[in-house]
């Protein structure tokens, strides 16, 4: 926690730089150069400046005022962490920061930004909006925060992990050739890769540069002949072993050589594929100014990475089996805790720690795949609740406990939510839990033709709630990486604009929920893999295969609402869970599993 | 039917003009200046040139060859009608005509087109694609076909209908003011309106200029102060009565003055809203070249027109009640025909005529809302079958008859499909009919939050088929106008890209189907209105209210597949049909209704 005095001093330092650069404002986003969801500690510029350490937001410093913009998840946390006497607060969606800036400044004003921390699309939109008001958007060569951040953490030096073909299922050379062939077909000379998951997947690398995301940070340029320039802290790689691992066609460069190579691509007049939505403005402007032709398009690794091969899927299945054992042991322990009645010192934090302790018993476990959401009673009504942002709620006050957690294992990534009966629950809560389960079951059972997008299936998970007048305000399913980000695209199941067809091998979550503000929260989440149907059909059909095998809490089910099909699904699922996990459990845990998977 | 000699002569005449204009090719689309679905006889240039009279397609005439491009609906008809020795045939989707042209021509070639018959978007895409190959796209001042079309039908002179507020529910002045207020809010000076349905709705006009579409043809410019310039064949309007009808703020102009006014808007440097997807290139290029700023956006009448007001909805309900009586009398007659066993002279054509005869008994009936699809046995497997394109199939050979038809009534537009048992049917056919009905019922029963788009609901109508490995290759629901086009946007229920939220007052069809090539076809279609739910709910919910009340053929249902909810739906629907129609029927028809709506 930073004191208001420290924050005030930092803001003053940034203002000094603004004055020297003749700027009237400066924009500080949460993002780093890779524009991904997770960033390393040395990129937490927004937290340094404001004290606010949430995972999304943007600050704007003017000469005489400053503002912090966050979305609905973080309105409470922002007020707790960023001093109100220095920062005014705005809702990022209701009051977008660029529009707000345009209203604050006079014609002729100059707004500074770091072009490495904004997407090209974001930059262009901001530039157009400000230009309409006669305001100039000025790229800075060096970020003012970097100039003043004295106690900045050193960047990670953890060695990269050469991720073997026995885990990745395909050599980097083969992956590069598949994409290079596509570049050639499209008449492109190269592709700029800036998303770290993409590069780690393509080079069969992993690392520990970022918490929750097992990657080594870097940039890459893939050429149409299959060669690749990799920009990375070369200290993290043993050169000879790396070359053996990825092949001779990959050249290593220090990260600060990226600009030079981009300029050379421009001088050679290359046609370069880059994604203006996910790649930073600086890299694309550098290419363009040097003479390259930018061809806007999706990161070419995304779809290939999303469709897991058989080795990756085997790893995901194995990781999920291990994870299921840990979760079941936690659930058995939790029920014993409830029965004991002794809740002394137990709270959301100790519960999360206990769950991780079970996961840590696996040799292949690396870290959580995201910060565990361990939420009792009303806290579960906040979809992205983090007990570490305040005082963890003590156990014993509530009927319902929601725990959403996952693990990064060397062979796969997991993500599971269970909603549990830990006290008295009302009939209404049971009815709502049952409707959430009915949505989960309907989506799980769907068969759908090739070409179907997640937006088309989303309603299946919502309809039981809709029919009763309820809904939930988040997507139903996100993509999941293979020992990579627990959130990956392009696949998604949700009510909004993503029309990407679901394809065999894509991993997705199935997680409908229901949230009663200040009351309780319900979410039922398994991971599934898109698979071809074996059953004969007139048109080629796909379906979901389950990765997650952990009992749902049948004590929360209102049986009167279930159809025979839904009874059958629950019983078959629980029989499958028992079949898979019984051999891996013993004693009280095995007894718990048998009781938790009894026929409904 | 045109002889090949006549067609050859016409193509030669067009080639003469090409030579005189130094063009290497000329593009002839089916579209007219309004780019809508239905066009008047004097705009059937494609049919004049090729003999093909389908509702979609495009021909390309080169100096030494010619080609006709049609979609899957019309591959058979195109070969029957357009002489193969003159036109080669291509599939419009698999071999788009512009790409094909680019492959045929040398660099430096010149391709002529009539900019009034192509959207601005279509023009820009074609221009870019051809420019990539060094080919020029050249607008012609006069369409070569118009120069040679000697026996061209005279344009309609039928007087316009002043459509009273007792039918329209809102004055033209009020409608114009609603849109003008929006233009002012968006900083726009005017909107170019080229879709005839939009203009007829906005001015509370109807006409008989086009078959199946009760409109008077014209163009309009609406200004931000609510005034409007209407470009129309002024012979069709009695000036004094018209001004009384629409108010003093509407100025009448002959259609050929449009270019002059567009140029004046340009000289005045106005910001003009125009829809580049639905408005022709000529009008927007004229504006732009004269100095106007084009602001691309959806036709501003679309959403307002789509959300019917209470008077329009009352008209729709009344029209549907009248239509239901006609359809039920036809269905009763059909069952008596089947029982009689005397099918002499009965075929798809006489059935369609008989159905229309029942509709014609209503004073308010104007014409069919589209060409009736009267399809026996295998013909029903073609979704857009027209018995008038070949020899109508005789009655008595098949188990299943599909009839998709509708009426334009002065107070509303109808569209209904029933699939009927008229002979022996197989268990498989019954199972498939039942699955189509299950989809129809699931969509009909859905409740959904405000903001939901049709693409999200589409799966409800398909899932019962998907779960058995089947699908259908068309959308599930199209928008329907109010005594206007039976196909209107922006609302739609389908698997592809339309994300327009469904709003109260929008009318849509609910028409899942199943098609077995060379076998049979099934479709179950009602029209519904989007309505607010009265039931209490946590978030504002919408649902569908049914407009169509005609029995479904329960002889085709496999009861073993139905859930209790589906039984209940069918029985409640039939009880409602009986309640509404019994008082309007008598004798054998009433007896038929009672038997057709018996409890399942």
From TrEMBL, chains A, B:
The keyword Lipid biosynthesis does not apply. The keyword Metal-binding applies. It holds the Pfam family Peptidase_M24_C. Residues 540-598 form the Peptidase M24 C-terminal domain. Gene3D superfamilies: Creatinase/methionine aminopeptidase superfamily, Creatinase/prolidase N-terminal domain. Keywords: Aminopeptidase, Hydrolase, Metal-binding, Protease. CDD domains: APP. Residues 315-532 form the Peptidase M24 domain. Transmembrane segments: none annotated. GO terms for molecular function: aminopeptidase activity. It comes from the Bacteria. Residues 10-141 form the Creatinase N-terminal domain. Belongs to the peptidase M24B family. This is Aminopeptidase P family protein. It comes from Aeromonas schubertii.
